[in-house]
Amino acid sequence: MSRLLITLGIVLLxxxxxxxxxxxxxxxxxxxxxxxxxxxxxxxxxxxTSILISVVISLIAWLLNR
Length: 66
Fold this sequence. Notes:
Oligomer: single chain
Order of helices and strands: HEEH
Strand content: 5-15%
């Protein structure tokens, strides 16, 4: 359990450090991401971005377990 928490912490740290670069690359504004904006309301559902991140994480996990 502690190994999982340490790994999760490192992943979150790396994601936080890379966040400005990831925003400039267009991640989060891909076709298929749903954005609904009203006067005092904004709803954002990053479907395509979530699928892309899931595929990348699955590929990395598969390569590490190989």
